[in-house]
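Researcher: Go.
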Amino acid sequence: MHPRTFTARACRNAASLAAIIAILAGAVPALAAPGPVGNRRPIAVSVPSEAAPLDPGATGTIPIRVVNPGSTPVTVRLTGQGVRFGDDGRVTISGSDPMWDGRIDFPASPITIAAQSYRRVGLTVHMPARIDPDFYFVGFLVTPLPNAAGNLTYINQIGSYITINVPGPRTRTLVADLHLPSFAISSGVDAKLHVHNVGKAAAMYWGENDTTATPGSSKPRQGLLDRSLLPAGRSRTVVVEAKPSFLIAMVTMHVHIFYPGRTDAATTEIVLTKHVLVVQPTALVLFGGILIAACIWYAHRRRKRRTQRPTRPRPRHPAKPTRNDARKRRSPSRRRRVPAHADAAVRVDRLLAQARANPKRTARSRPHPAD
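Model: Structure:
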């Protein structure tokens, strides 16, 4: 291909690519540009951190705060909602709650909150005459309303709940289990702590984790578990961490969980202890390097011994055993053999001895001449 043809084609490709980029750059803002959706007015709700104590049959007002961080005023309406709790702190606010319908006085008319300001709102609670000692949760929903112009197209509803504590003795029972492997290859271990509420009332629990390692520091590392409210029949999972100081160490975790018993003055404690052998990846790398170095050293030493060992000449024709050698080899076995007629020879010797002791004259024998 001629150089001029290649240069012209490259210029045309570059010009086409630039045109495509320009078209896309002009189209993206047009697609991403939102239409006139009006003022987006986010809101927030703040409730008391502690439960409000109310006796059976009493009436009390619980203050809440509705915050408007936006740049324009917001008008909101407060309505009651049902609260349903799940495991691990999941909360669902929807529908109605038959227990509290008609017992909560919400503002009858909508309230307006100025820009970058807040409004205090009191929720009046009428307690039932008969109610068991426990924690109770009353849900509500804060819904923004369109202004006079009616140009509000984005609604940011906020659901929350208030907590009521009916004092008195109650049945609170928690059980816990700590899931931790006995061996781990990592720089640290994460144990899963499961806390279950098997009692008949909600319980507020807290705890701490004391971690020791051998070898390791003399003082245990302590981690605190925040206070958490666990409704009856629900569970919560907490991750507890532990990091050893050495590459290989035996880590021991002591988890303590505290919660009130039948009364708030009595405290119940749950103690869980687990051991795990932690091997950090760095230790495996070092061990692998040492093992490879030992293998290389052993192979080098063996090769060196083979080169230094003197060699002996081997005979070309191995010597064969001669006939006399074969006889000499067989002679010891022949000497060890026992004669087959040993008993017969013994009898013959006995007869010869008797004949010599009692000689008899036969007819052939001749008397000796007298002197």
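Model: The chain has four helices and 19 strands.
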